[in-house]
Design a protein that fits this description.
single chain; alpha/beta; Rossmann fold; 2 domains; six-stranded parallel β-sheet; five-stranded parallel β-sheet; 36% helix; 14% strand
């Protein structure tokens, strides 16, 4: 009997992207399986065009789970909860049947934060922990990075944007991603400005991000002059992915867009502050170089926070624009 597999991962960008190596492994091991992926509607494009997934079911954030549960009612040979939240636990109860999750290691993660890595150990890459949820499917992860499939329309829009702003015609195109959901994961804005001034004379630059980065993106583009354009708040997720694919390298913080860049095969220079390797969310088997500072107060939080607990934010402030520029000149391969 062909497996019928239900995968639930509502959010967010990086977490969804990091489930794709498991999806690929399932498809390779079970070529005729029917894979259904449940995702928040605002992130659905990340998996919508994935040829390894037969059906994508979307859920509107903060809406009732009952209609979704009714849509998912039926027989499944395998049900995988890759979210591991109270909301996904409620969905599991509503849908019924046997479910398998992955170890989030909340207690050990808290010990890592409180002890500053003296206790708690290495939680292991989250991709490998996702695979534990599918142990009954007898899958083996390969040595390839995560993946995101764009659309013809997204590629067309990215090409039009690049052409409109003259990006990448005669010079190398680099992408800069200045945003992050939380303050402590954001490289300082003045550092991004210094990086733009350093790179703009010899490179084309595109600033990427969401609406929250639109103002900063516009300011950086104005600072850089011709050959620098901001697509922050203008392009969709897949259009952003298409612009990332056109770029020779990307500078970003510990963000979902950084994982998006690795998923389209673009070399990444990533600045990590609160996040540490032991959390398991570093770039997965990708062309990436992580810049970080060996400072005793890391990690201070699991997901970032609105302020530096010590007030100095040295975990990112001690990574200089010259270091990032040098890394971009020799991007990882």
């Amino acid at each position: 009997m062909n497996p019928t597999i239900l995968i639930v991962r509502f959010s967010s960008i990086g977490d969804i992207i990091l489930t794709t190596p498991l999806v690929r492994a399932i498809r390779k091991r079970h070529p005729t399986a029917r894979i259904t992926y449940v995702v928040r509607e605002d992130f659905a494009d990340l998996v919508r065009h994935n040829p390894r997934i037969e059906r994508v079911v979307t859920w509107k954030h903060r809406s009732s789970l009952e209609p979704l549960a009714r849509e998912l009612a039926g027989e499944w040979t395998h049900r995988l909860d890759l979210q591991g939240s109270r909301r996904s636990a409620k969905l599991r109860r509503l849908v019924g049947g046997d479910w398998h999750g992955y170890p989030k290691h909340r207690v050990r993660r808290t010990m890592l934060i409180l002890s500053k890595r003296r206790f708690g150990g290495d939680l292991g890459p989250v991709v490998e922990r996702y695979a534990q949820a599918a142990s009954a499917l007898d899958v083996t992860l390969d040595d390839q990075p995560a993946e995101v499939y764009t659309s013809v329309e997204a590629e067309r829009r990215a090409a039009e944007f690049a052409e409109l702003h003259g990006l990448g015609r005669t010079r190398r195109l680099l992408a800069l991603v200045p945003g992050a959901a939380h303050f402590t994961k954001r490289w300082p804005p003045e550092y991004w400005a210094a990086l733009v001034e350093h790179l703009a004379p010899s490179n084309d630059l595109v600033i990427l991000g969401g609406k929250a980065e639109a103002e900063l993106g516009a300011a950086l583009a104005e600072r850089g002059g011709p050959g620098v354009a901001s697509a922050a708040g203008v392009m969709s997720l897949l259009e952003t992915a298409a612009l990332l694919r056109r770029s020779a390298a990307v500078a970003a913080g510990d963000t979902g867009v950084m994982h998006l860049a690795t998923a389209v095969g673009t070399p990444v220079v990533a600045m990590y502050g609160p996040g540490v390797p032991e959390f398991g969310f570093y770039p997965w088997r990708a062309k990436a170089r992580v810049l970080e500072v060996d400072i005793g107060c890391r990690p201070c939080s699991a997901h970032g926070s609105s302020r530096c607990p010590r007030g100095h934010h040295r975990c990112l402030r001690d990574i200089t624009p010259d270091q990032v520029a040098a890394a971009l000149e020799r991007p990882p391969r």
